[in-house]
Specification:
homodimer, 434 residues, alpha/beta, Molybdenum Cofactor Biosythetic Enzyme, Chain A, Molybdopterin biosynthesis moea protein, domain 2, Molybdopterin biosynthesis moeA protein, domain 3, 4 domains, six-stranded mixed sheet, five-stranded mixed sheet, 18% helix, 29% strand
C-alpha cells in the first residue's frame, strides 16, 4: 500500500477563504496562451475564422459605374422632350469589356450591372420604353445619374473593408470576394491536446468490466475545443506511472513539432487520490516556495472558489520542443465542462483574437429558489425561457449529473457572497446557444 | 441583336398586389427539400450534427455504485461508536475491476469514482480520518448511503438520454460517450451545388477587365450553406448558351450521383435581361398554364413581396439521375444573402431536422426612423445594442451595399402594411450571431 493521502483534495468542500478567486485563476489561464500566428487560407475555408489583419480593398466597389436597371443607357439631355425615339447603337450585356462610347442622340441597350458607356449619364428602365431593339421609343425622361451606381459607391479603393479581429461569416466572405481577395490572413486555430488517462476509463463502444466507466471527458472536451475555435485532438492512454506518462506525452508533443501544440488539457487525476499520476507528473519537482518557476514541472495546482470545479491547475510543462501550456480540469464531467466554460474557452478565444471571447450574458428571473455555498461562485446548469425572461435550474447542484447538463442551454451564475436566491430574483445567465 | 425584353423583370419595383407573399414562397422552397437520410458518424465528427434517432442508454449511469469521495468504504453500522479504528483490508483505486467484498468490521481505502465493494454501504471521507493505510482511525460517523453515488442515479438502463432532433454539442457528445456510444446516427447534411454563371464575373484573386466584377455570391452562398448545416459546393462556369448550361449542370449532377445533390442554388440571371441563360434554361419548356408540371424544367419564377429580393424562383430540374430541387436567388449580393436567410436557410435546417430552423427573433426599439415600401416586407440590415435594447439600420435600403451588410449583426423586419416606423418604435429583429 502506498503513502497516505496528501493535504490536497478534490472534494467539493474546503475553506473558501483560502481558495483562489475565479477571476484570478481565469487570468492565470488566459496568460498561458499567446495570440496565435497568422496563416492564409482560401475563402472557401475561411468561414468561422478570425481575420488577422485589416482587409483593404485594392479597388473601388463597384469598380466602374454601372446600370442599376435593365434598360437603355442615354444622355439625360437627349430625353428633354419625351416621348422621343432614339436609335439603339449598341448592346451592353453585363460583362461586356469592350463597350463603345455612346454617341449623342443614341441609346445603348444595357443590362443590370453592365458598365455605363462613356458619354452616357443615366439609364432609362425598360418599363418606360417600348423595349425596341433597333430604335427605342422612350416615354419618360430621367435625370442625370438616375439608375446609375457610381464607381466606389459601396467601397472606395484603399478602404479597410474588414478590420483585423473580424469573425468571417458569409457576408464577410462575400465582401472579401467582391473586392477581389481570394485568400485571407486569419489567426491560426490553437491546437489542443486533450489527454484521457484514467485507468478506470474505457473508450466508448468498448465493453465495460465492473468498476470501469466509459470515457466521456475526452470526446466532450475535444468537441468543446473545436466549438471554441480551436483544434481539439484526443490522446487516450493509461499511464502505468509518472515516467511512462511523461514519455508518452513528450512523444506526442515531439510528433507534432511541425504544427506545435498550444495547450495540453487534462481532466481528472488531480485530486487527493493516491493514484494521481497526472498531478504527480506535472508537480513532482515543483517547489511550493516557487510556484512560478520554470524547471519543467511548473504546473500549480489550486483550489478555486467555485462550485462545481474546485480543483484546478495551470502552468507549463517542459516538453521536448519547449514549454507548453497545461491546464488541468477536474475529472467529473460536469465540473470539467463547466470549468472549460469558465477558464479555457475564453482563453482560447482571446488567443484567437475572437471579437467575443465570452458567452453572451443576459439577466433573467429565477423560476425557482436556489441555494449556493458561501464564499464560492456557483454555476448551475439551466434552461432559459427567452419569451418569459425566466431561467430554471436543471439537475440540481450535483456535479455528476451529465444527463441534466446535456439538457441545459445556459449557465446560471450565483456570486460568492450569495447563499440563497429567491424565486423571481434576477441572476446572470451565460447563453450556451446550441 | 436579340429579341426584346420579356414581361418579367427583376427591378425593385412592381405591383405589390400581384406579388407572392413571403410566407407562400417560403413554404414553396421548404416543400422542395425532403428530410435528409440518416448516417452514422463517430463522436469525434458529431459536433454540430442533428441526432437522427433517440439515443437510448444500454446501461445505467453510473454503471455501478461508486464513491463520491476519496476516503474509506465502510459499513455505516461499524461506525456507530466513533472514534473507532478499523483494519484497512483492501485498496480500491478507480478502475479496479476485481475488488473483494468488504468484511464486517473492516474498511477499504477507496478513491472517487471507484466501485463500492459488496458489503459496504457508505464512504467516510479522508478528512474525517487519520488517513491510515494499515489501520484507519475514523473520527466521525456516516449514514448508510452517504458519499455513495448509486448505480443509475444519472441515467437508467433503457432511458432515452438524447431525443431525435437534438443538436449535438460538447455536453451531448459527452453524454453519448458516457453511456458507451462511440458513433451516433445523425441526419445527413444536405448537399447544395452553388452555381456561379454570370459572364461578367471573375473569380476572386484574378485580375479584372473593365466591365467585369469579382464574383462574390458563390463563396458567400457556399459559406451560408455550410453555416446552415449543409455542404455548399461552388461550381463556377460561364455558359455560352442554354444547351451548354444544361449540359454542364447535368454533368456535375451525374458526377455526384453517389452522394446526390439535394439542391441547386443559383443567383442572378433571372431578371428581365436579354442574356438570362439560367432562367431560360430552367423555364424554356415550362408552360405558364401548368406551373407545377414536371417535364424537366419545372422552375417557377415569381416576384415576391419583399425588399430586397423580389425576383425569386423555385422548382425542380430534371437531371440525369432524377429531379433535383432548384432555388434561384436574385443576383445582387445583398438581395441574394437576405433571400437565403428568408427562404433557404430555414428550409435547409428543416430538412436537417434542426431543432431551431429559424434565426433567434427578438424585438428591439428602433434607433432611427425608417421608411418601407407599401405592400412589401422590408428586411433592413442592422446592428443591435442588446444592453440598450435598441437596433439601428446600417447602410440604408439600397440593396447593393455589401460593406454595410458585412457590418450588420441582425436583420430588421418591417411588415408589408407598414410604410414608416418612427424612432423608438419596436420592430422584429433576427439575430445573425457571428
Amino acid at each position: 500500500m502506498r503513502a497516505g493521502h496528501g493535504a490536497g483534495h478534490g472534494h467539493d468542500h474546503g475553506d473558501p477563504a483560502a481558495m483562489r478567486p475565479v477571476a484570478e485563476h481565469a487570468a492565470a489561464v488566459a496568460a498561458l496562451l499567446h495570440p496565435t500566428a497568422t496563416e492564409t487560407v482560401p475563402l472557401a475555408q475561411a468561414r468561422g475564422r478570425v481575420l488577422a489583419e485589416d482587409l483593404v480593398s485594392p479597388h473601388p466597389l463597384p469598380p466602374f459605374a454601372n446600370s442599376a436597371m435593365d434598360g437603355y443607357a442615354v444622355r439625360a439631355a437627349d430625353l428633354a422632350d419625351v416621348p422621343v425615339a432614339l436609335p439603339v447603337a449598341a448592346d451592353v450585356p453585363a460583362g461586356r469589356t469592350d463597350g463603345p462610347p455612346l454617341a449623342a442622340g443614341t441609346a445603348h441597350r444595357i443590362m443590370t450591372g453592365a458598365a455605363m458607356p462613356d458619354g452616357a449619364d443615366a439609364v432609362v428602365q425598360v418599363e418606360w420604353t417600348d423595349a425596341g431593339t433597333e430604335t427605342v421609343a422612350v416615354e419618360r425622361a430621367v435625370a442625370a445619374g438616375q439608375n446609375v451606381r457610381g464607381a466606389g459607391e459601396d467601397v472606395t479603393a484603399g478602404q479597410v473593408v474588414l478590420p483585423a479581429g473580424t469573425l468571417l461569416g458569409p457576408a464577410q466572405i462575400g465582401l472579401a470576394a467582391a473586392v477581389g481577395v481570394g485568400a485571407v490572413p486569419v489567426r491560426r486555430r490553437p491546437r489542443v491536446l486533450v489527454l484521457s488517462t484514467g485507468s478506470e476509463l474505457v473508450a466508448p463502444g468498448e465493453p465495460l468490466q465492473h468498476g470501469q466507466i466509459h470515457e466521456s471527458n475526452g470526446p466532450m472536451l475535444a468537441a468543446a475545443v473545436d466549438d471554441a475555435g480551436g483544434r481539439g485532438e484526443l490522446l487516450r492512454f493509461v499511464p502505468d506511472d509518472v515516467e511512462q506518462f511523461t514519455r508518452t506525452l513528450d512523444d506526442a508533443l515531439a510528433a507534432r513539432s511541425d504544427d506545435p501544440v498550444d495547450l495540453v488539457l487534462t481532466s481528472g487525476g488531480v485530486s487527493a487520490g493516491a493514484y494521481e499520476v497526472v498531478k504527480d507528473a506535472f508537480s513532482r519537482t515543483r517547489s511550493e516556495a516557487e510556484p512560478d518557476h520554470r524547471d519543467g514541472r511548473g504546473v500549480a495546482f489550486t483550489k478555486v472558489a467555485m462550485q462545481p470545479g474546485m480543483p484546478q491547475g495551470s502552468g507549463h510543462h517542459r516538453g521536448p520542443t519547449g514549454d507548453v501550456a497545461v491546464v488541468t480540469l477536474p475529472g467529473n464531467p460536469v465540473s470539467s465542462l463547466v470549468s472549460f466554460e469558465v477558464f479555457v474557452r475564453p482563453a482560447l478565444r482571446r488567443a484567437l483574437g475572437h471579437p467575443q471571447p465570452d458567452r453572451p450574458r443576459v439577466r433573467a428571473r429565477l423560476a425557482e429558489a436556489l441555494d449556493s455555498p458561501a464564499g464560492r461562485r456557483q454555476l448551475r446548469r439551466g434552461r432559459i425561457d427567452a419569451v418569459a425572461g425566466t431561467v430554471a435550474p436543471v439537475g440540481g447542484a450535483g456535479s455528476h449529473l451529465l444527463a441534466a447538463l446535456a439538457r441545459a442551454d445556459c449557465l446560471l451564475v450565483v456570486d460568492e457572497d450569495t447563499t440563497h436566491v429567491p424565486a423571481g430574483e434576477t441572476v446572470e445567465v451565460w447563453l450556451l446557444d446550441g
